[in-house]
Amino acid sequence: MNIQPLLDISTRNHSHLCPRQILGVRLGLAGLKALGFDAPPDNKQLLVITETDGCFVDGLSAATKCAVGHRTLRVEDYGKVAAVFVDVKTGCAVRVAPVLGIRQRAYACASEETRQYFAQMQAYQIMPDEDMFTVIEVKLAASIESVVSRPGMRVSCDACGEEVMNEREVHQNGMTLCQPCAFGGYYHAVKNAVLSPVVETK
After folding, report:
1. Which of 16, 27, 119, 170 has its CA 20 to 30 A from that of 131?
2. b/e per residue, 45-65, with b = 16+ CB within 10 A?
3. What does pTM read for this prediction?
4. Which domains does the chain have, with CATH numbers?
5. How does DSSP assign 27-47, residue by residue?
6. N-terminal to C-terminal alpha carbon distance within the chain
7. How confident is the model at residue 202 (pLDDT cuts 50, 70, 90)?
8. What is the per-residue pLDDT across 136-191, written as a single tens digit (0 to 9) for each?
9. Residue 201 — very low, low, confident or very high, per pLDDT cuts 50/70/90?
């Protein structure tokens, strides 16, 4: 398969091309193939859960046409270049990850290129899938229905009053709470902080 059109899409979104984008494109195509898709399916049938963010995801998105904005791409940031591909209709799910030592395999594949970065750039475009990836069948820890949710699901948090969408609320001691109010979030409010209005500068 000629992956250049997909690399062009990733390059446009990322402003340049790098090895991890190529890896993302190849891994995305391998995930589609593992689920039996010749091309990205329509109607949000495919859900991709990536285990890192960054340039890898630009390649992954170019290959699968999944996006955070469409709610077909989710990020579980483990800092790993890997992704789970879920057929929402059948429930089948696979995890695709690079084989251990993939960089060394790339250097061997492009041995005439002494610069490691460019060796990866070359090799990742031509190496066979079986030399690049491991594919295992997996089962999601939560049901697909709870991950995907349903349109129009909105409630207000009984503690902070903010709206919670997509059934991400928590029911605790008879209250409906957002997850930060229930468990603590990724930030802490700065007490006594006074925010000034945003002033545009010329």
Report:
1. 16
2. ebbbbbbbebbbbbbbbbbbb
3. 0.86
4. 4-146 (3.30.1330.130), 149-183 (3.30.60)
5. HHHHHHHHTT-SS--STT-EE
6. 50
7. low
8. 999 999 888 888 887 788 999 999 999 999 888 999 999 999 999 999 999 888 87
9. low
Query: Residue 125: CA atoms inside 13 Å, Cβ hemisphere, count?
Result: 14
- Look up tokens 């029911």; give the residue: 171
Asked whether the CA dihedral 25, 29, 31, 37 is positive or negative, the reply is positive
**7-to-84, 118, 126, 195 alpha-carbon distances in Å:** 21, 15, 13, 43
Collapse the DSSP code of 124 into the 3-class scheme (helix H, G, I; strand E, B; otherwise coil) and give the result: helix
* CA 81 – CA 137 distance, rounded (Å): 17
Structure token digits, residue 109: 């594949």
Phi, psi of 42 (to 5 degrees): -90, 180
